[in-house]
Design goal:
alpha+beta, six-stranded antiparallel beta sheet, four-stranded antiparallel beta sheet, 16% helix, 32% strand, binds zinc ion
Length: 200
């Protein structure tokens, strides 16, 4: 994915998503102060639901201008990016690392690998012009005919098969996001590893 094309897509998405963003902005303001980080184990009593950015069955965190879905798999951690309005986005030029804090052990920092040309079981495909058009298999956008792209992600390889739920905190920091919030950080608690490619 070339940066020039990404920038064009991003502004088009921002445009198309404008009314949704405006509606969500009020919602965000209210739940931002209450919960900076809301994993799937702690559904919000107030604020909007995060169904639109749980495409991979992961845990959702909201930062100032982004949503991130974190998926703990047996083979590592995957982070998917969404807009403030919960539209699927490509990972683009973003990079970063995850600091793993085990309950009874040392911390470990793992740099993320960017998977822009993802081809994995469980991939989600969407139209960069119409990010509401989401499918579980490759194809064309029903609205504009453009080829759907796999939602790329950041990946950190770590064996989580023997880690007990609740005994690991993953502090994730991501740079190169551009826009209103070029750098974002959030923390998720490990709640058990999913087999990769499994959907809820
Ligand atoms: Zn949110
Ligand atoms: Zn489209």
């Amino acid at each position: 994915m070339k940066l020039g094309r990404l920038a064009v897509c991003a502004s088009a998405i921002a445009c198309l998503a404008f009314s949704a963003s405006a509606a969500l902005a009020a919602d965000h303001a209210s739940h931002q102060s209450a919960t900076q980080d809301h994993g799937s184990a702690a559904p919000e009593a107030k604020g909007h639901s995060h169904e639109a950015c749980e495409l991979h069955g992961g845990q959702v965190a909201m930062t100032k201008a982004h949503h991130f879905e974190t998926v703990f798999g047996e083979d590592g951690i995957r982070v998917y990016r969404y807009s403030a309005a919960q539209k699927a986005e490509l990972i683009g030029g973003a990079a970063g690392s995850v600091t793993l804090k085990f309950k009874d052990g040392p911390s470990r920092v793992i740099p993320f690998v960017s998977r822009n040309a993802a081809a994995e079981a469980g991939d989600i495909y969407f139209c960069t012009m119409h990010p509401d058009q989401v499918k579980r298999e490759p194809g064309a956008c029903p609205l504009c005919g453009m080829k759907l792209v796999a939602q790329s992600h950041l990946y950190a390889a770590v064996d989580l098969r023997k880690v007990e739920p609740g005994t690991l905190k993953a502090s994730i920091s991501i740079k190169g996001l551009g826009g209103d919030e070029p750098e974002a950080a959030f923390t998720e608690t490990f709640q058990g590893a999913a087999h990769h490619g499994e959907h809820h």
